[in-house]
Amino acid sequence: VVLELAERGELGAELALSPDLVFRFSVFSSVVASRRSQPPSVRLPFHHLKGDGFWEPLMKDGSPSPDKKLTTKVRLHPEFRECLQHSGFREQARRTIIAQGRYFNLQEQIALYALVGIPVPDQNVMREDAAQYRTEESKGREGRFRIDVVVVAYQHRCALTGYRLTTLGMESIVDAAHIHQFSYSKNNHPSNGLALCKNAHWQFDRGLWSVTDDFRVLVDANKFDESGGGDWSLVHMAGRNLYLPARREYWPSTVHLDWHRQNRFFAAFEKVV
Fold first, then answer.
1. pTM for the complete prediction?
2. Looking at residue 127, what is its pLDDT?
3. Residue 73 in contact with residue 58, Cβ under 8 Å?
């Protein structure tokens, strides 16, 4: 997470324990969560990485923190912060961490390589079972689409409503939704995804709304009846601009948007229920 923040220019001399930081931590920790008896807690590494010399844990008033429950921010060691400014250091650090077989099994290593955008290295440990490799790589890529790339690209904000909510419990209100249905397309590229809150995701999958090639919202009010939504109602979303990621490579593909319009939005209601 720290390497990612540094790469995006979002890391200063101090790092606060925030809902955004917790959510990013949950992205990576989800890779190993299935074999842990207890859910991973960000407070443990956030406080105890002081022992490795990376940073100094601090309380809210800026004084040194004696306990993980009191740590609200950390002050990075100047030399560590300097190292983080160099892409070569970040690349080697990622490879060194992920390659540790005593920490991660093959499936987890492949998922982590996908999460950080590094091609799986041509190493013997990665070629023990070709069939398993292909299966686990697919799982890793799906995890990357589902959790990291799409949701983080939209900064945990719903593309339809613009609403954003993340919690210290590692939860986000948005999901990564496929535009061109995955069971048909087998396409996990981020350009085939939108970050959507639960209601918007459900409505999108049923073709109640779609998106034009210039990223304006289309709504078919003939397919539904609603009440009580006010300005947040689906009818009021018609014609609005979609909320898009800052990086253009993560914008929705017009090819996938066309598929959704033709096969969901313009399709007869009976076909999309």
1. 0.55
2. 43
3. yes
